[in-house]
């Protein structure tokens, strides 16, 4: 299967660079089991889900992971904390005029925080902070909003680039689980009152989610690694949901990858699991758990578009995307949403 099979034309003006005034005011394109699409509003999710269904949400929180600083010589640098190893050591992306070598010292703020480069791990730098990393991020960091926003993070992003149900103890992502951004507290309460359950997984989203696929044959692509946790409580709720004939709906590709990784780790049978996942879901993948997916519109030729295409099929997805472009749906992180049903065999 070729990378070009997942290409489509997207006008720049359809990229949503700011959120709507209200989280749940987005549009929703429903792609059903027969591959037919239907124009809806996101609040119609209330009628599209049944009592007894189960929503799986990613409760990670986005760090203010982007730091601006300088070298000892004065040259500008940017440090993006990808993953914390402990209180002081992290794996980071570093942008600089020249790649820093082991032993190089960088400075954040008014030279108050020293960052020492220890070495490399694959495409990341291993660095040691002179102060606790989370304290440094809180004082000097900026939210790492997606590159296609083509702007710096602003005050509105502080609230709107986080989910309303994020767990403050799980502050470790460098990108939001954006399908969840459509849910406000009022809508969640209405869904609960209808009898629609929710449960949580954690997947700390890495900057690799924005990396392009660089192989012509997608099967040669190597996915980035992300840490996730699927707790026993969520697994048990999924078992109960399946047993009574209801649907499991993952909210976002991150929740989908977490759940399917847990099943894959146990030979196809879902069980509680914690670990690093590099699962790559593309057409031909046999979903073990997920019945339906709530997701945003994704970039051309992205692994996220491939995942969505695996749940329905590539032709259905591309036809729906063509319609979304013509109907001027808003794309990407602050854009509109889809409800994709697993296609009937």
What does this structure look like?
The structure is a single chain. The chain has 345 residues and is α/β, with parallel strands linked by helices. It has two domains: 3-62 and 159-341, QueA-like; 66-142, Beta Barrel (Thrombin, subunit H), CATH 2.40.10.240. The chain contains eight helices and 17 strands. The longest helix is centred in the C-terminal third of the chain and has 13 residues, at 253-265. 43% of the residues are buried. One of its GO terms (cellular component) is cytoplasm.
What order do the helices and strands come in, and which of them pair?
Blueprint: E1 27-31, E2 37-41, H1 45-48, E3 54-58, E4 61-62, E5 66-71, E6 76-84, E7 89-96, E8 105-108, E9 113-121, E10 124-129, H2 133-140, H3 155-160, E11 171-173, H4 185-194, E12 197-203, E13 226-230, H5 232-243, E14 248-251, H6 253-265, E15 273-277, E16 292-296, H7 303-311, H8 314-326, E17 337-341
Parallel strand pairs: 1-17, 3-12, 3-14, 4-11, 14-16
Antiparallel strand pairs: 1-2, 5-6, 5-8, 6-7, 7-10, 8-9, 9-10, 12-13, 13-15, 16-17
Key terms:
about 350 residues; alpha/beta; QueA-like; Thrombin, subunit H; 2 domains; nine-stranded mixed β-sheet; six-stranded antiparallel barrel; about 25% strand; queuosine biosynthesis; transferase; QueA
Mean pLDDT: 96
CATH fold node name of the largest domain: QueA-like
Main pleated sheet: 9 strands, mixed
What letter string, H or E per element, gives the SSE order? EEHEEEEEEEEHHEHEEHEHEEHHE
Q: Overall 3D geometry?
A: globular
Number of individual domains: 2
